[in-house]
TrEMBL record:
<keyword id="KW-1003">Cell membrane</keyword>
<dbReference type="InterPro" id="IPR005829">
    <property type="entry name" value="Sugar_transporter_CS"/>
</dbReference>
<keyword id="KW-0472">Membrane</keyword>
<feature type="domain" description="Major facilitator superfamily (MFS) profile">
    <location>
        <begin position="8"/>
        <end position="417"/>
    </location>
</feature>
<dbReference type="InterPro" id="IPR011701">
    <property type="entry name" value="MFS"/>
</dbReference>
<dbReference type="Pfam" id="PF07690">
    <property type="entry name" value="MFS_1"/>
</dbReference>
<feature type="transmembrane region" description="Helical">
    <location>
        <begin position="234"/>
        <end position="251"/>
    </location>
</feature>
<feature type="transmembrane region" description="Helical">
    <location>
        <begin position="357"/>
        <end position="374"/>
    </location>
</feature>
<feature type="region of interest" description="Disordered">
    <location>
        <begin position="425"/>
        <end position="444"/>
    </location>
</feature>
<keyword id="KW-1133">Transmembrane helix</keyword>
<feature type="transmembrane region" description="Helical">
    <location>
        <begin position="325"/>
        <end position="345"/>
    </location>
</feature>
<feature type="transmembrane region" description="Helical">
    <location>
        <begin position="180"/>
        <end position="199"/>
    </location>
</feature>
<dbReference type="InterPro" id="IPR051084">
    <property type="entry name" value="H+-coupled_symporters"/>
</dbReference>
<feature type="transmembrane region" description="Helical">
    <location>
        <begin position="20"/>
        <end position="38"/>
    </location>
</feature>
<feature type="transmembrane region" description="Helical">
    <location>
        <begin position="394"/>
        <end position="412"/>
    </location>
</feature>
<feature type="transmembrane region" description="Helical">
    <location>
        <begin position="50"/>
        <end position="68"/>
    </location>
</feature>
<dbReference type="InterPro" id="IPR036259">
    <property type="entry name" value="MFS_trans_sf"/>
</dbReference>
Length: 444
């Protein structure tokens, strides 16, 4: 890994961290501001309404994936990454100043909804832009390692949110957190986005994109028509994302609520469990990504799917009766270790499926659709099962999604050796198999 490659990874990851800090603090602080935007009454119902708006952000992600994926393929990865962080900054400011139900009635809900739509647009493009950028910025035999920093930065953003939550929980009263202090993380997120905007304005474009001869003379570049020519790969992205995104959101954003609302841990302890588990989870991402560079992507994906299919129900059942910090931490770590088989490499696997001219859109739109259908609704589905008195049904739902993805992982081809510099994969034939990567220790 050369110095320039590390610089690209750092800038891409720093922006991704801020993006996902803003995205996740909505979920982690929802327990405090849910009652601020709806009439007083049923706490579970208010939380469901708030998480319903959270899900709306996911349904905007396909739109953001299409718009910003198109920008990434036609104008460059740098342009798309700069635009995503601008949208995220605007959405964080809106949430920070949104009026409560007592002040503006449902007007506050409208502001919250607009902010979440902007966040959905932003994150819909951010995932693909950063996945493409990190994959293209690395040497062929380091793509798994380099792209694993996407989830390192995503988790770092969530850890910052959880860390801030723990600090606020231990320094402020419950009344303060429910009345006004929940706005603090969104103010911090807006400031962080402004700093990253400056960094991304000065970032370097990837050589793979810069050296693509069709970058400026192909009118079909980054269009739905071009993506349709690679529809098989697009549907593959949706299918391989299904199990991973449900499992990921179950053991990250939903875990704290599950530990406090179902397992009976107090909120500070539940947050501390999530923080410690996510920190270790973050640290092992590059190790798993590097392993995939040696043995391939499929072995890790299959390991995740088998583990998630058969261990989800036992882990969630035992977590329900954990009762204290250490048992809850151990079970959470086991679950996240299983999920690592997906998170550490899913970015590069998807980027490796598409040629340069459609790579950003090819990753963005199908992935955003899968997240809208499965990731964004995970918490809402979990709360729906809980409200219906059959919370264990959600455990089987997660296991079932993983089982579907397992079929895909077993039948898909290996992508580790594919050459990212190919431009028109359609001309090679969909069945031609992976092309050997150019070996270079210093870069693409």
């Amino acid at each position: 890994m050369g110095r320039e490659q590390w610089k690209k990874i750092w800038v891409g990851s720093a922006g991704n961290m801020v993006e996902w800090f803003d995205w996740f603090v909505y979920a982690s602080f929802a327990v405090y501001f849910a009652d601020s935007f709806f009439p007083k009454g049923n706490d579970t119902a208010n939380l469901m309404n708030t998480m319903g708006i959270f899900a709306v952000g996911f349904f905007m992600r396909p739109v953001g994936g299409w718009l910003l994926g198109r920008v990434g393929d036609r104008k460059g990865r740098k342009a798309a990454l700069t635009l995503t962080v601008t949208l995220m900054s605007a959405s964080a400011i809106l949430i920070a100043v949104a009026p409560t139900y007592a002040v503006a009635g449902y007007g506050g809900v409208a502001v919250l909804l607009i902010a979440r739509m902007l966040q959905g647009l932003s994150v819909g493009g951010e995932y693909a832009a950063s996945a493409t950028y990190l994959t293209e910025a690395s040497a062929p035999d380091r793509r798994g390692f380099a792209s694993s920093f996407q989830y390192v930065s995503m988790t770092a953003g969530q850890l910052l949110g959880l860390g801030l939550q723990i600090v606020l929980q231990r320094t402020m009263s419950e009344d303060a957190l429910h009345s006004w202090a929940w706005r603090i993380p969104f103010i911090i997120g807006a400031l962080g986005a402004a700093i990253v905007f400056y960094l991304r304005r000065n970032m370097l474009e990837t050589e793979v994109y810069a050296q693509d001869d069709s970058a400026h003379n192909d009118p079909a570049r980054g269009t739905i028509k071009a993506l349709w020519a690679h529809r098989r790969e697009a549907f593959l992205v949706i299918a391989l994302t299904m199990g991973g995104t449900v499992a990921y959101y179950t053991y990250t954003t939903y875990l704290t609520k599950y530990l406090s609302g179902t397992a009976g841990l107090d909120k500070p302890t539940a947050s501390l469990v999530s923080f410690c588990a996510l920190f270790i989870f973050m640290c092992i991402q590059p190790l798993a990504g590097r392993l995939s560079d040696r043995i391939g992507r499929r072995p890790l994906l299959i390991t995740f799917a088998v583990g998630s299919t058969f261990l989800t129900v036992p882990i969630m059942t035992l977590l329900k009766h954990a009762g204290s910090f250490w048992p809850a931490l151990g079970l959470s770590l086991l679950a996240l270790l299983v999920v690592t088989g997906y998170t550490s490499i899913n970015a590069c696997v998807k980027a490796e499926l598409f040629p340069t001219g459609i790579r950003a859109l090819g990753v963005a739109l199908p992935y955003a659709i899968a997240n809208a259908l499965f990731g964004g609704t995970a918490e809402y589905v979990a709360l729906w099962f809980k409200k219906g008195g059959i919370e264990s049904g959600y455990y089987w739902y997660v296991a079932g999604c993983a089982a579907v993805s397992l079929i895909v992982y077993v039948t898909m081809r290996e992508t580790r050796t594919i050459d990212l510099n190919r431009v028109q994969r359609a001309e090679q034939g969909a069945e031609s198999g992976p092309q050997p990567a150019k070996s270079s220790p210093s870069g693409v």
